[in-house]
Amino acid sequence: MAAFFFRRVFWIIPVVVTVAAVTFFLMYRAPGGPWDLDKPLPRSTVRQLNAKFGLDKPLWVNPDAVGDARDEGVANPLTLGREFFDSQFFNYMFGVFQFDLGPSYASKGADSVQSVIADKFPTSAKIGLVGIIFAIVTGLPLGIIAALRQNTWVDYVCLFFSTIGVSVPTFVSGLLLLIFMSQVLDVSPIRRPDEWNGLGPAYILPGIVLGLGTTAYIARLTRASMLEIKRQDFVRTARAKGLANTPVITRHMLRNALIPIITILGPAAADLVTGSIIIETIFGAPGLGREFVDSIGNRDYSMIMGTAIFYAAIIAFANVTVDLSYGLIDPRIRLRR
Predict the structure, then answer these.
(1) How far does Cα 258 stand from its chain's mean position?
(2) CA-only gyration radius of the chain, Å
(3) Which residues are CB-neighbours of 52 under 8 A, at least 6 positions away?
């Protein structure tokens, strides 16, 4: 188990490095720059900022040096070590390996990307945690009830609402719930900034809206898995031996039906924790998703790249957790050493 864990964690490194490299070049291929604001800065100020943050260095290698190398007959000019080690790409990747995501360009270096993530991510994590709990607590029972009451009105109602949950995007359900609470119930769902401190009721509504789609997926998948397990020979054998209905459902049916549910639950949990961009914008939550959207508008390239790397690491760790949980849920699954 330990060897498998460390082997899987090791494979997270090339994933994060690849995401960092691809994001870096995509950002610098985008038109404009981090100082192209609504009010243009003087050229002298732009030069000072570029020198301060190392943006005056070559992106990959110095084109002039490559041209000189070609003139001198060098076989592969991209192997010019001195030029490469002084490039923006090398400095950024070297910082990533040191867990240094650089300064935030929007703050002119006053805040680091790590500090912004540490400040904003807890809000997103709390909203995602509420969504995960709501999805599991609601989706599993709905799927179990629908499977046990197959082809009855209960099953049809569960399928109807789960289909709606899968079909309706979160920004539509969020806006509808926002209008319903403000216009019908006369309750303002928009919270003051201080109400997002701690773990208060401000997280309940956005968390529920965020978890609606995952609830529907879990309910439909639980129903399908339970119906498949329900027809297996070991379930009929357990009933033939006189085992009560509750142990048959919990020990035999549900436990075996959890494998495909766990498969989607890990990435879904990571998606809920990191994917609350629209929900945070609708409900005014000061989370990392909203900061990510603002950084795109502000051309804060370092913040965009740092957030993408952070999200990629969370999703990778969630997949590792899912793989480890297989052997704990089903004893028949053994990890190869």
Answers:
(1) 22
(2) 26
(3) 109
Cβ atoms of 110 and 183 within 8 Å: the answer is no
Are 146 and 218 in contact by the 8 Å Cβ rule? The answer is no
Q: List, in order, residues 6 or more apart from 297 with CB less than 8 Å away.
A: none
Q: Which domains can be identified in the chain, with CATH numbers?
A: 53-70+80-100 (no CATH), 114-329 (1.10.3720.10)
Phi-psi label, residue 31: left if phi above 0, alpha if psi -120 to 50, beta otherwise: beta
Report the helix count and the strand count for the chain, using DSSP H and E. Answer: 15, 0
The reported pLDDT for the residue numbered 13 is: 86
| Largest CA-CA distance found in the chain, in angstroms, rounded | 87
Q: 3-state DSSP call for residue 103? A: strand
Q: Can you tell me whether residue 112 is helix, strand or coil? A: strand
Over range 154-173, report the average pLDDT.
85
Instruction: Report in angstroms the alpha-carbon separations of 299 from 85, 136, 295, 306.
Output: 26, 38, 6, 13
Is 0.70 surpassed by the pTM of this model?
yes
Cβ–Cβ contacts within 10 Å for residue 302, how many?
24
- Binned at pLDDT 50, 70 and 90, residue 228 comes out as confident
Given a cut of 80, whether residue 18 has pLDDT beyond it is yes
* Calpha distance 158→146 (Å, rounded): 6
H-helix or E-strand spanning residue 73: none
Q: Which of 87-96, 207-216, 222-231, 240-249 has the lowest mean pLDDT?
A: 240-249
Separation of alpha carbons 325 and 329, rounded Å: 6
Task: For 37-61, write each residue's pLDDT tens digit.
Answer: 666 777 787 788 778 877 777 777 6
Alpha-carbon gap, residue 277 to 291, rounded angstroms: 9
